[in-house]
Amino acid sequence: MPEFYELNPINKPTFSNLIQGGTSEIKLKREDNYDYYQDIAILKYIYHYFFNHGVIPYPNYSENFINYIEASIPNLKFHGQALKTKIILLKRRFLFILRIVGYDPNIINPIHREIFDLSMGLWG
């Protein structure tokens, strides 16, 4: 004899802050944590230092170089040793990308492209 099963309706989940076509809160939080404009500002002032002094210091950055960048960028999040580390990380990230994708990567995001182009001029 066949058995009969009763199908219960499934409750649809409700979303409180759902906007059609909007970005998720997780994505917004991830983007807010990293400030690409700080990277661009740091790279631009490394350029300024290079054009004013004729040299880009090696990773054992001088106090004069770090002070120049700190004084040039208002609201800089990195100071002293943290700024030195940030510059080293920018250079390492650039060299890593260069090794993987080469000298002319297809970068669509304009901020990432500007960071790559500035880095290419400094370390490429």
Automatic annotation (TrEMBL):
Cellular component aspect of the GO annotation: nucleus
Domain Glabrous enhancer-binding protein-like DBD: 38-124
GO BP, one annotated term: regulation of DNA-templated transcription
InterPro entries reported in the protein's UniProt record: GEBP (IPR007592), GeBP-like_DBD (IPR053932)
Superkingdom per UniProt: Eukaryota
Family that this chain belongs to: Belongs to the GeBP family.
Protein's name according to its UniProt entry: Glabrous enhancer-binding protein-like DBD domain-containing protein
Organism taxonomic ancestry: Eukaryota, Viridiplantae, Streptophyta, Embryophyta, Tracheophyta
